[in-house]
Amino acid sequence: MRFSIKRLSTYITTIFGLLFIYLFVNFSNFRIRYSDYMIHYSLTKENFKQSDDITRNSIHYTNYEFSLMEEFSKMHDPATFKKNGLSERCGVFFDFFDKKDKDWKLRTFDDATFDKNIVHKNSYFKDELNKLYKTKKNSADPHPDIVTRKENVTINNMFLKRVRETKITENLMADSTTLLRIYGQCFINGPNVGHNEELQETFNRYSRKMFPFFTNKLPVFEGINDEIIEKSFPNMQNGYNGENYEFDGKNVVDFIKRSSNGKGIVISASSSHVKDLVKLIQLLRAMNNEFPIQIVYKGDLNNRAKSNIINAATGEFKDIIDPKNKASSHPESIEASILNNTEKYGSKFPKQDLWFVNIRETIKRNYKYSFPGYTNKILALLFTSFKEVILMDADTIPLVPLQDFFETQEYKETSTMFFKDRSLRDLNDYLETNYFTKLCPTSVNSMDSLFDVKPITNHTLSNPYMTGYRHYQEAGVVMIDKSKHFLGILMMFPLAVWKEPVRSSIWGEKEMYWLGMSIAGDENYQFNKYSAASIGEIVTNPKHKHYPDSDASEICSSHPGHVDKYGRLLWINSGFKYCKKNTHFRDRNKFPFETFLVEEIANLYDSPLKIKHGIVPPDLPILRRPGSPFELRNENLIKDDWKERTKDMDELSDEESIKHKQKEKVNPQKGWNKNSICSSYQYCAYDIIDSHPHNDGSVEKGHKFVFDDELVSEYDYLGSIWINGRTKSSV
């Protein structure tokens, strides 16, 4: 083959051109990587901020990929694989995964590193330097406040190691939730695999791997007529008529999904909750409740407590209120109020269908400490025999018949009904919202997509928690149909056993209900329209208002309540007493009680809450844009605006709050102000606040609800029932 000089010259020029482009691109990438690398090793505050930006970008959920995705895709072309039936895909995947990691099981990650300060390098350095100063002082170092270059480098290397380890932990956790979603698609949401012995065996085996803390035993159901059920679920759907399927001991997850039945109330409790339980059950009787009740406990409900609860559920009306009691003859007594109103409100006080459910043997003993107290509610939700569940706290106060909850549009459309918490200006962190998003299905080209799991949407990504606020859900009442959202319930268990970052990112278990569902790829849930309201009476005396010159209405209360879209008050939390803490003497010198007699405060605290009004403050602005963007410009602008504003009452120092007990000639800046009344359980709510971000006199408005006299009278009656509830044990 003959080449002309011209053609040869063209070839050489092309080759050198391509080589130049290759070297330029790679050198540019090298420069960027080198620049990023050097930022991590520069120890100035400005470089700390740049380091945080780089780390936030590197851990962003969009960069996550299931650890075996690339290898699996090389063996099974994704486009071809997706054309196979679900059963075939499931068999292929779990066969592949068994070969890659046959000993895998869900980890608690107790021994793993997860450090939230990887995106707060300055804070990390401050903490480590303080430790270093302390060590030097204790060792009589002549210069304890001097830090050498070598010591700084050591701390920096420690920091970079924490970054690497935290990234590994986070990705392993995301791998775990990905696996659980595939398990769910194959065995929970998909067709029954019972006809396929091989898949059923895989289902049984992976149920033990996914939930290694379960003993594969059922709870013990104890009926109040000495009925004991240990190897099956009671049939609650048809008045106990019907076949009880006995558990074969192979797969407790499968059994619970297939055998849950009926509707009912579930309360997680121990002996310490007995007083509230007795009051709640008597209140339910006054409201003619017909739903069965299961009290779920972990071996920590003694016989005396059970006896008290049984008496409350089945005792005669005279045991609840004795008409011959001298106090009942007084026209203003609580007893008289009850006696005079039972007929008016149609209270029949039916005996309750009560069960105790002991879940102690359902959890392996070596996992005992993996489930702290608040996670008992998650265990109760799973192990109750009910299919449709009203999960309640012992101090919850329903104010409408429970059947009305099942009749809400939200429940009818989604088989869930969740309730929003107070819209407090308590903030979470980028790392937290990014972490939870990473646990969710987020990509159309992921391992999830091979099993038809759809990415989450703004239904999750734009909610208040995911856009920057600590509190979204209040879990005093949770309604859910287990059979329709079973994988979402199962997904709560990794969250329950993972200590960090979960336990420091959410309050108890309360955000786990919607999180579990979203992580499962199930966004078919709905919240009540309004955030929690402050329930009580609007302050009318300017001398008792924290903002006496403001047009804002003010309710100071320790009781959050939940008003539906029609203005009905569905329920309140924290019992029915004005204050559930015995702090009247301690509060006597606090505003607005300085002018009250101690006896007046004591009587107020022990009395039922007077329910006349509710205030839902204005909504909060979106702090962090949906999708957890790694640049924080919008977030920082809003925070800077808040810093420039007038301090609210709960932002004053102790010295300032003693000097200024009221804020005159200003509006509140936040919808909720916390105070120290009632052991700091009390919050003051406002329906008008200064507008964000314009500090120009414009305001934002929330919602004010006024309950009519007939409702107020009914609430008084129900409050009397609850306050009068007493423990009366036969043991």
Automatic annotation (TrEMBL):
<dbReference type="Pfam" id="PF11051">
    <property type="entry name" value="Mannosyl_trans3"/>
</dbReference>
<dbReference type="GO" id="GO:0006493">
    <property type="term" value="P:protein O-linked glycosylation"/>
</dbReference>
<dbReference type="GO" id="GO:0000033">
    <property type="term" value="F:alpha-1,3-mannosyltransferase activity"/>
</dbReference>
<comment type="similarity">
    <text>Belongs to the MNN1/MNT family.</text>
</comment>
<keyword id="KW-0808">Transferase</keyword>
<protein>
    <submittedName>
        <fullName>DEHA2A03190p</fullName>
    </submittedName>
</protein>
<keyword id="KW-0325">Glycoprotein</keyword>
<dbReference type="InterPro" id="IPR029044">
    <property type="entry name" value="Nucleotide-diphossugar_trans"/>
</dbReference>
<keyword id="KW-0472">Membrane</keyword>
<keyword id="KW-1133">Transmembrane helix</keyword>
<keyword id="KW-0333">Golgi apparatus</keyword>
<dbReference type="GO" id="GO:0046354">
    <property type="term" value="P:mannan biosynthetic process"/>
</dbReference>
<dbReference type="InterPro" id="IPR022751">
    <property type="entry name" value="Alpha_mannosyltransferase"/>
</dbReference>
<keyword id="KW-0328">Glycosyltransferase</keyword>
<comment type="pathway">
    <text>Protein modification; protein glycosylation.</text>
</comment>
<keyword id="KW-0812">Transmembrane</keyword>
<dbReference type="GO" id="GO:0000139">
    <property type="term" value="C:Golgi membrane"/>
</dbReference>
<keyword id="KW-0735">Signal-anchor</keyword>
